[in-house]
Design brief:
10-stranded mixed sheet; 10 strands; 391 residues; alpha/beta
Length: 391
């Protein structure tokens, strides 16, 4: 969904979103921009060679999260190179990985979260990045995001966008004295049966850990046991585990507090005039004061990719300033592309790019690919959470 951000929308967003600071009325650039010139330039710089005699350029297959690439970004690439971009989606890293592990192929680019990438590399699913074929990446990467990325050397990974996990909530359902920016909200009886938790092992257990003052990447069995006990309290208060529909269910009133992602929440709060979705100043988004998840989603090139030439052309294209700007206005989250961030209106930049003090409260998810015994602890903890009936 392309977001059309009016002055009224920004006024609503500034009042509603708890991740904001110092916003005033503004409006990002007009939608529907033609990005084909940027695509041609990026493709040429990547070494891409177009088919002779105007032949069909073929297909690029991308496996990513839903609503994660702006339509005009895809359209510009297709128009410039005469190709078709096919986008398939997943709703969790675990689901994505399981499909690939079971033999799922046909993808050129995937967009897993940082913590999943080392395991994919270990399993031989992805190539090392050939930086000569995507020169825009290191040239245009914004170094202020380096601490939020596991591998800032970009060995197998090219950072795409960062999401922060918190609570999307109905403002009029929060009783006086209840803090929406605390993990304690998930067990508050005022929200009984109106809470959803992400259906994600690391996000949920990580939340349990952070709520108790532990590291989101704890390997201590006792701390994991304590986190499970905490999550079970939340489960007893919740409707379901859900990684997708919560964003519309908070908007509809079915859910009052949805454990979810900053990009999803901001898209709903901002609204979409083209789709008849009004801005929602009755919905807020809060990052837990005890700690929240920082997770970069990154572009990787599949070992089995049939069109690695198109994959690198696309990756290089994503790091063009105007392209990143269009993507950020659609995703409602930051691409770490410095020229793109600089093109954003000041108010919109403040909306989606967190300040250093806020980022310091977050914790970056790490992978356990070199510690299978730890991942086994997490898997068993997750099984206990999922198997236990809500009280």
């Amino acid at each position: 969904m392309m977001k059309s951000l009016s002055n009224t929308t920004f006024a609503s967003v500034c009042a509603a979103a708890a991740i904001l600071a110092g916003c005033s009325d503004s409006k990002p650039a007009a939608e529907g921009v033609d990005l084909s010139a940027q695509a041609r330039a990026a493709a040429a710089a990547s070494g891409y060679v177009a088919p002779a005699n105007g032949k069909d350029g073929g297909e690029l297959h991308i496996y990513t999260w839903s609503d994660y690439i702006a339509p005009e970004v895809l359209a510009g690439f297709e128009k410039a190179l005469g190709v078709k971009v096919i986008v398939d989606t997943f709703d969790s890293n675990e689901a994505m990985y399981a499909k690939l592990k079971a033999g799922g192929t046909g993808y050129d680019i995937m967009m897993p979260s940082s913590y999943q990438i080392a395991q994919m590399a270990k399993d031989g699913m992805i190539d090392k990045i050939d930086h000569a074929k995507c020169p825009n990446v290191k040239k245009n990467f914004d170094p202020s995001f380096a601490k939020q990325i596991i591998d800032a050397g970009f060995t197998y990974n090219v950072p795409y966008t960062v999401t922060y996990t918190g609570f999307m909530y109905a403002k009029d359902k929060v009783p006086a004295g209840v803090e929406a920016n605390s993990w304690k909200a998930l067990e508050n009886p005022a929200f009984k049966g109106r809470v959803t938790l992400l259906d994600d092992i690391r996000e949920v257990i990580g939340g349990g850990l952070m709520s108790l003052g532990y590291s989101i990447n704890s390997t201590d069995p006792k701390e994991l046991d304590a986190a499970v006990a905490q999550v079970l309290k939340w489960k007893a208060n919740s409707r379901k585990f859900d990684s997708e529909s919560y964003k519309t269910e908070v908007a509809s009133g079915a859910t009052w507090v949805g454990h979810g992602y900053s990009t999803d929440a901001t898209q709903i709060i901002v609204g979409d005039e083209d789709e008849g979705m009004k801005p929602r100043d009755d919905i807020g988004f809060a990052l837990p004061k005890e700690g929240f998840t920082i997770a970069f989603d990154e572009m990787v090139v599949a070992k089995t990719a049939k069109r690695k030439d198109l994959a690198y052309a696309f990756i290089n294209y994503i790091y063009e300033g105007e392209v990143a700007k269009a993507n950020m206005e659609f995703i409602c989250g930051p691409n770490p592309v410095k020229p793109g961030i600089e093109l954003l209106e000041d108010d919109y930049r403040k909306l989606i790019v967190l300040d250093e003090a806020t980022v310091a409260r977050g914790q970056v998810l790490q992978g356990f690919q070199d510690k299978p015994e730890v991942m086994e602890l997490y898997n068993k903890a997750w099984d206990r959470i999922k198997a236990t009936e809500a009280r």
